[in-house]
């Protein structure tokens, strides 16, 4: 069976059952807008309260066996806020019924429109496969941020496959491209990349690293929601004590998704916050602790020191933790994301990548570049700003999102 046919069988059927979600989306947006206004009010009140509050001494040095201070913990949202929250969740739950392929199709619209238009145009101009065709295809792939090395590798693979299958018609090459992209992504992993390795014997600790502005806080909030939906008991630790407003921003997310946030004041030792986070999560019998960190890429030595101290504290408290160190990258920064990934993987052991704002770029090929050039799996992708827009990465759904129009068109051919 052809690859397009396989993708169609897997995903198009799911799509056929879809209802029109536009009204639901509007509902969510309106509710979120109302809720955001409340968040802002809540935030300013909470900041005022914080200022009035006496700043308690914290476990600022490693090895200080202090219990978490309950007054620092932001508890679940108040009643009326919870009502709004429940309403949002209700609408979002319906929305979550959207198939994974639809999420990818919507999220990759920009990349698809640019990439697919160019490929279709190329196929229309070259009916038969030759060297010039491959040269132009190479340019299209590079312009989609697939990355020069990955493109070279892909083109070599394509040429071999075209020869092997004796393909003459350029339309057939589109199918081979989609097939090879999936091969590049999974490599030797046999399509079994685990999204999160959970600790089977207690608290799972997930560490989030990445430079400021990539959407780290939003991702942690979305992840908290996602894990809660899976029935996990979640706690967040506001370890980005460096960027102004980062702590409060995480607290807003905590309110929004109903997850407690362990915090200290701005400028305090991140390792101490994470330490308190672990103690608090343990005492609550939580399943997962999500740790935010600051990303000072400008100074690699500081970054390394800070991250290794945080990791040492986590490892000492829970042997084998952190269970995942997820690097958050902004897809819209293109090749810059690739160089950030290189720096962070030198500074710390990165187990997976969360690629945010994939919906905001026409250069979604960056997923392939990261996978092929760094050999780090993209475990999650951000496909929008809504709380439900964090998706676990699926290379088949990704390729489906890229080639959806061609799949539909190939049906008519
Ligand atoms: N369209 C889109 N926007 C996103 C996505 N992820 C995050 N954003 C937006 O990106 C902006 C920045 O995200 P934040 O989480 O606030 O990031 P930040 O606070 O600037 O920086 P850090 O938390 O330090 O990374 C926000 O407006 C988010 O809504 C995504 O997947 N898609």
Automatic annotation (TrEMBL):
<keyword id="KW-0342">GTP-binding</keyword>
<comment type="function">
    <text>Involved in targeting and insertion of nascent membrane proteins into the cytoplasmic membrane. Acts as a receptor for the complex formed by the signal recognition particle (SRP) and the ribosome-nascent chain (RNC).</text>
</comment>
<protein>
    <recommendedName>
        <fullName>Signal recognition particle receptor FtsY</fullName>
        <ecNumber>3.6.5.4</ecNumber>
    </recommendedName>
</protein>
<dbReference type="GO" id="GO:0006614">
    <property type="term" value="P:SRP-dependent cotranslational protein targeting to membrane"/>
</dbReference>
<feature type="binding site">
    <location>
        <begin position="356"/>
        <end position="359"/>
    </location>
    <ligand>
        <name>GTP</name>
    </ligand>
</feature>
<keyword id="KW-0675">Receptor</keyword>
<dbReference type="InterPro" id="IPR003593">
    <property type="entry name" value="AAA+_ATPase"/>
</dbReference>
<keyword id="KW-1003">Cell membrane</keyword>
<dbReference type="GO" id="GO:0005525">
    <property type="term" value="F:GTP binding"/>
</dbReference>
<keyword id="KW-0132">Cell division</keyword>
<keyword id="KW-0131">Cell cycle</keyword>
<dbReference type="GO" id="GO:0005886">
    <property type="term" value="C:plasma membrane"/>
</dbReference>
<keyword id="KW-0378">Hydrolase</keyword>
<dbReference type="GO" id="GO:0005047">
    <property type="term" value="F:signal recognition particle binding"/>
</dbReference>
<feature type="region of interest" description="Disordered">
    <location>
        <begin position="14"/>
        <end position="84"/>
    </location>
</feature>
<keyword id="KW-0963">Cytoplasm</keyword>
<dbReference type="GO" id="GO:0005737">
    <property type="term" value="C:cytoplasm"/>
</dbReference>
<feature type="domain" description="SRP54-type proteins GTP-binding">
    <location>
        <begin position="377"/>
        <end position="390"/>
    </location>
</feature>
<dbReference type="Pfam" id="PF00448">
    <property type="entry name" value="SRP54"/>
</dbReference>
<dbReference type="GO" id="GO:0051301">
    <property type="term" value="P:cell division"/>
</dbReference>
<comment type="subunit">
    <text>Part of the signal recognition particle protein translocation system, which is composed of SRP and FtsY.</text>
</comment>
<comment type="similarity">
    <text>Belongs to the GTP-binding SRP family. FtsY subfamily.</text>
</comment>
<dbReference type="InterPro" id="IPR000897">
    <property type="entry name" value="SRP54_GTPase_dom"/>
</dbReference>
<dbReference type="Pfam" id="PF02881">
    <property type="entry name" value="SRP54_N"/>
</dbReference>
<dbReference type="GO" id="GO:0003924">
    <property type="term" value="F:GTPase activity"/>
</dbReference>
<dbReference type="InterPro" id="IPR027417">
    <property type="entry name" value="P-loop_NTPase"/>
</dbReference>
<feature type="compositionally biased region" description="Acidic residues">
    <location>
        <begin position="72"/>
        <end position="84"/>
    </location>
</feature>
<dbReference type="InterPro" id="IPR042101">
    <property type="entry name" value="SRP54_N_sf"/>
</dbReference>
<feature type="binding site">
    <location>
        <begin position="292"/>
        <end position="296"/>
    </location>
    <ligand>
        <name>GTP</name>
    </ligand>
</feature>
<dbReference type="InterPro" id="IPR013822">
    <property type="entry name" value="Signal_recog_particl_SRP54_hlx"/>
</dbReference>
<dbReference type="InterPro" id="IPR004390">
    <property type="entry name" value="SR_rcpt_FtsY"/>
</dbReference>
<keyword id="KW-0472">Membrane</keyword>
<feature type="binding site">
    <location>
        <begin position="210"/>
        <end position="217"/>
    </location>
    <ligand>
        <name>GTP</name>
    </ligand>
</feature>
<dbReference type="InterPro" id="IPR036225">
    <property type="entry name" value="SRP/SRP_N"/>
</dbReference>
<feature type="compositionally biased region" description="Acidic residues">
    <location>
        <begin position="23"/>
        <end position="52"/>
    </location>
</feature>
<keyword id="KW-0547">Nucleotide-binding</keyword>
